[in-house]
């Protein structure tokens, strides 16, 4: 519960999705297909043009087998 509390008091930093996709060898297109999220939205997340909703972050984290908090560099 402590980790969740820290996130509540944090703000979005840089989206780390580009790095996670590279490390997992998954393309933006493949992530789009596997999550059902439009590829244009995936691109906006990767390029820090839009912040993910909690549901979107959950879907992406599930596919990438990571924690939601790993999708962003959180700022205090």
UniProtKB/TrEMBL annotation:
CDD domains (UniProt xref): HTH_XRE
Coiled-coil ranges (or none): none
Family annotation (InterPro entries): Cro/C1-type_HTH (IPR001387), Lambda_DNA-bd_dom_sf (IPR010982)
SMART domains: HTH_XRE
Residue intervals of the HTH cro/C1-type domain: 17-71
One GO MF term attached to the UniProt entry: DNA binding
Record-linked Pfam families: HTH_26
Designated name of the protein: XRE family transcriptional regulator
Organism: Cytobacillus praedii
């Amino acid at each position: 519960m402590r980790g969740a509390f820290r996130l509540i008091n944090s703000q979005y930093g840089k989206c780390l999705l580009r790095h996670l996709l590279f490390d997992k060898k998954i393309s933006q297109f493949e992530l789009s297909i596997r999550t059902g999220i439009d590829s244009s939205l995936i691109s906006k997340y990767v390029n820090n043009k839009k912040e993910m909703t909690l549901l979107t972050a959950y879907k992406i984290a599930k596919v990438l087998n990571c924690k939601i908090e790993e999708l962003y560099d959180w700022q205090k």
